[in-house]
């Protein structure tokens, strides 16, 4: 199962997120849930960098079983707001996957 942890500052802004585990919803190379979660998360990281110029602080394991991203603290208000919008879009997409494939993915928010 893929466990996704969303850490919010003051229960409002996304401070960081982490994903760990493997969905194992299909054979290696055909696991659609893992592919979807990976595409959404890596796509969001890439979109944040391309559209805002922000490099999230990331920790990614080689085997693809773990990723953690932290939002830098020194962003302008406009940049911070844009990063937050993109992260909230990621969460909406991940929750859509969770609704359909809940036995393979779980999202936890604090």
Would you summarize the structure shown here?
The protein is of the alpha+beta class and 110 residues long. It contains 2 helices and 5 strands; from the N terminus they run ββαββαβ.
- Determine the mean pLDDT: 94
How much of the sequence lies in strands comes to 25-35%
**How do the helices and strands follow one another from N- to C-terminus?**
EEHEEHE
Q: Tally the helices: what do you get?
A: 2
Number of strands: 5
Keyword list:
110 residues, alpha+beta, five-stranded mixed β-sheet, 2 helices, 41% helix, globular
How would you describe what is shown here?
The protein is an alpha+beta fold and 110 residues long. The chain is 41% helix and 27% strand. Helix 1 (32-52) runs antiparallel to helix 2. The chain is globular, with a radius of gyration of 14 Å.
Spell out the blueprint of helices and strands:
Elements: E1 2-9, E2 13-20, H1 32-52, E3 57-60, E4 66-70, H2 77-100, E5 105-109
Parallel strand pairs: 1-5
Antiparallel strand pairs: 1-2, 2-4, 3-4
Helix pairs in contact: 1-2
């Amino acid at each position: 199962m893929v466990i996704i942890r969303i850490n919010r500052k003051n229960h409002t802004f996304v401070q960081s997120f982490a994903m760990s585990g493997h969905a194992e919803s299909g054979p290696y190379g055909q696991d659609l849930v893992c592919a979807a979660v990976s595409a959404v998360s890596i796509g969001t990281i890439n979109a944040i960098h391309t559209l805002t110029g922000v490099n999230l602080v990331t920790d990614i394991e080689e085997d693809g079983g773990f990723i953690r991203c932290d939002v830098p603290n020194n962003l302008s208000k406009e940049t911070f707001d844009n990063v937050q919008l993109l992260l909230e879009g990621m969460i909406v997409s991940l929750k859509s996957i969770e609704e359909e494939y809940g036995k393979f993915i779980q999202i936890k928010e604090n």
